[in-house]
Amino acid sequence: MSTVRGKQFVPPPKVDAGVLHMVPRIEPDTQLDMLELEQFCRIVFNTRRKQLHTTLLSVLSAGHIREMLEIAFPGRYEHVKTLRPQQFSVQELCKLAEAFSSLKHKYQWQIKM
Fold first, then answer.
1. What does the pLDDT look like over 6-19, one tens digit per residue?
2. Neighbouring C-alpha atoms within 13 Å toward the C-beta of 112
3. Which of 80, 93, 102, 104 is the most exposed place for a label (fewest CB within 10 A)?
């Protein structure tokens, strides 16, 4: 960790700041590029306390959400739609992101962040 003195900011705060460099522990096992994975994670974690289905309604129709969840988790739609984003493992989030990406390309969606 390195320290940045408060007097280097304008206006200067009365405290110093610390800068951390963080390295991911798990490299996601996915074919997606990191920008697509990041876009999906921003969507679902933007309202992380809400259920996945509710969060995705801000960008997808209910029918498309069902299609996406059936692709990622066949036969588990009713269970998965009620989970919150933080309840998924990294690998499960990658599956969801891949399903989202495949539908995005299939329907040629333009998702704006």
1. 899 899 999 999 98
2. 0
3. 102
Strand partners, 18: 3
On the 0-12 / 13-18 / 19+ scale of CB atoms within 10 A, 65 is buried
* Strand, coil or helix: 109: coil
In 3-state terms, what secondary structure has residue 72? helix
E strands, the chain, in order = 2-4, 17-19
**Directed axis angle between helix 90-107 and helix 62-72, to 10°?**
130
d(CA 82, CA 65): 12
pTM (2 d.p.): 0.73
